[in-house]
Amino acid sequence: MYKAIIRPLFFLFDPESIHHFTFSMIKMLSSLGFGGIFRSIYVKEDPKLERQLFGLTFKNPVGLAAGFDKDAKLYRELSDFGFGFIEIGTLTPKPQSGNPKKRLFRLREDSALINRMGFNNGGVDAAVTRLKKNKGVLVGGNIGKNKVTPNEDAVKDYVICFNSLFDHVDYFVVNVSSPNTPNLRALQDKAPLTQLLKTLKSENAKKDKPKPILLKIAPDLTNEQLLDIIDIVSETKIDGVIATNTTISREGISSEHKEETGGLSGKPLTERSTEVIRFLSENSNRAFPIIGVGGIHTAEDALEKIDAGASLVQLYTGFIYEGPGLVKKINKAILER
């Protein structure tokens, strides 16, 4: 039904506008009691799906990636579609509108999206207000820096977000890999990244019960840079890596919007993100957990990432193109192994 009726209808409209419309619809339907119906259709529960990771219990290994529910406005309702965890953000200390519109493009022929949103969000404090209402949803907090903050002061922004969110999320993700904030990816270089992660680890150590800290990396890193990531994880003793964010590559893309600037997600990223997962896993001797994300449009895509070394997986563009039934398909495929 989704791919035959709902998706063609949604795809008639501007992608960012329909995203907000869909949020409103889900929120309204859930308030009318449809959440239970969604759960009965999409949720797959089985103790064999549970994963123990970072000291947390995930009901199943399929999560929603950051960027979909940036402001923690719909995490409770989205959990009714079968996700084992929801990652909110990327959040910044101060609200920011992001880049000028139009900034989100569908590449239908490639089953992909290009976005140059630019960390548009209402600021970390507004998200905290909504997260205080959480009852039982495992939530990750993806944090970044404001566009106007120079890189030499970036650590301060991440610390503000970390401390503001600490009591309201289950794990943290440090986002230095979005291509849509000027110079942000420079923070992936070994020296600034090590300093940033060590500072957050120091903040974490001050807490009574420290939270897991993960690093989200770009798929465009070279093998040498990925080896640096392995060294950084070992040196800073963070808890894991999310591989990968969107790509700036346009290799093999045929759609009309391929020249638009921004991060590309969807099917064209499937192979590369899996390669990165495998490289990190093999070259670190599975020293740390990896959450695999990028181009998961089928259950087989998810299983390939798990076989490559991912402990958990996340959806974003695949959720838009394939619909909420994809979550259940992946969980069923995992159980059938």
UniProtKB/TrEMBL annotation:
<feature type="binding site">
    <location>
        <begin position="316"/>
        <end position="317"/>
    </location>
    <ligand>
        <name>FMN</name>
    </ligand>
</feature>
<keyword id="KW-1003">Cell membrane</keyword>
<dbReference type="GO" id="GO:0005886">
    <property type="term" value="C:plasma membrane"/>
</dbReference>
<feature type="active site" description="Nucleophile">
    <location>
        <position position="178"/>
    </location>
</feature>
<dbReference type="InterPro" id="IPR005720">
    <property type="entry name" value="Dihydroorotate_DH_cat"/>
</dbReference>
<keyword id="KW-0472">Membrane</keyword>
<feature type="binding site">
    <location>
        <position position="295"/>
    </location>
    <ligand>
        <name>FMN</name>
    </ligand>
</feature>
<feature type="binding site">
    <location>
        <begin position="115"/>
        <end position="119"/>
    </location>
    <ligand>
        <name>substrate</name>
    </ligand>
</feature>
<dbReference type="InterPro" id="IPR050074">
    <property type="entry name" value="DHO_dehydrogenase"/>
</dbReference>
<keyword id="KW-0285">Flavoprotein</keyword>
<feature type="domain" description="Dihydroorotate dehydrogenase catalytic">
    <location>
        <begin position="49"/>
        <end position="336"/>
    </location>
</feature>
<dbReference type="GO" id="GO:0006207">
    <property type="term" value="P:'de novo' pyrimidine nucleobase biosynthetic process"/>
</dbReference>
<keyword id="KW-0560">Oxidoreductase</keyword>
<feature type="binding site">
    <location>
        <begin position="66"/>
        <end position="70"/>
    </location>
    <ligand>
        <name>FMN</name>
    </ligand>
</feature>
<feature type="binding site">
    <location>
        <position position="180"/>
    </location>
    <ligand>
        <name>substrate</name>
    </ligand>
</feature>
<keyword id="KW-0665">Pyrimidine biosynthesis</keyword>
<feature type="binding site">
    <location>
        <position position="266"/>
    </location>
    <ligand>
        <name>FMN</name>
    </ligand>
</feature>
<feature type="binding site">
    <location>
        <position position="175"/>
    </location>
    <ligand>
        <name>substrate</name>
    </ligand>
</feature>
<dbReference type="InterPro" id="IPR001295">
    <property type="entry name" value="Dihydroorotate_DH_CS"/>
</dbReference>
<protein>
    <recommendedName>
        <fullName>Dihydroorotate dehydrogenase (quinone)</fullName>
        <ecNumber>1.3.5.2</ecNumber>
    </recommendedName>
</protein>
<dbReference type="GO" id="GO:0044205">
    <property type="term" value="P:'de novo' UMP biosynthetic process"/>
</dbReference>
<feature type="binding site">
    <location>
        <position position="175"/>
    </location>
    <ligand>
        <name>FMN</name>
    </ligand>
</feature>
<dbReference type="InterPro" id="IPR005719">
    <property type="entry name" value="Dihydroorotate_DH_2"/>
</dbReference>
<dbReference type="InterPro" id="IPR013785">
    <property type="entry name" value="Aldolase_TIM"/>
</dbReference>
<dbReference type="InterPro" id="IPR012135">
    <property type="entry name" value="Dihydroorotate_DH_1_2"/>
</dbReference>
<dbReference type="Pfam" id="PF01180">
    <property type="entry name" value="DHO_dh"/>
</dbReference>
<comment type="pathway">
    <text>Pyrimidine metabolism; UMP biosynthesis via de novo pathway; orotate from (S)-dihydroorotate (quinone route): step 1/1.</text>
</comment>
<feature type="binding site">
    <location>
        <position position="216"/>
    </location>
    <ligand>
        <name>FMN</name>
    </ligand>
</feature>
<feature type="binding site">
    <location>
        <begin position="245"/>
        <end position="246"/>
    </location>
    <ligand>
        <name>substrate</name>
    </ligand>
</feature>
<comment type="function">
    <text>Catalyzes the conversion of dihydroorotate to orotate with quinone as electron acceptor.</text>
</comment>
<feature type="binding site">
    <location>
        <position position="70"/>
    </location>
    <ligand>
        <name>substrate</name>
    </ligand>
</feature>
<dbReference type="GO" id="GO:0106430">
    <property type="term" value="F:dihydroorotate dehydrogenase (quinone) activity"/>
</dbReference>
<feature type="binding site">
    <location>
        <position position="90"/>
    </location>
    <ligand>
        <name>FMN</name>
    </ligand>
</feature>
<feature type="binding site">
    <location>
        <position position="142"/>
    </location>
    <ligand>
        <name>FMN</name>
    </ligand>
</feature>
<comment type="subunit">
    <text>Monomer.</text>
</comment>
<comment type="similarity">
    <text>Belongs to the dihydroorotate dehydrogenase family. Type 2 subfamily.</text>
</comment>
<dbReference type="GO" id="GO:0005737">
    <property type="term" value="C:cytoplasm"/>
</dbReference>
<feature type="binding site">
    <location>
        <position position="244"/>
    </location>
    <ligand>
        <name>FMN</name>
    </ligand>
</feature>
<keyword id="KW-0288">FMN</keyword>
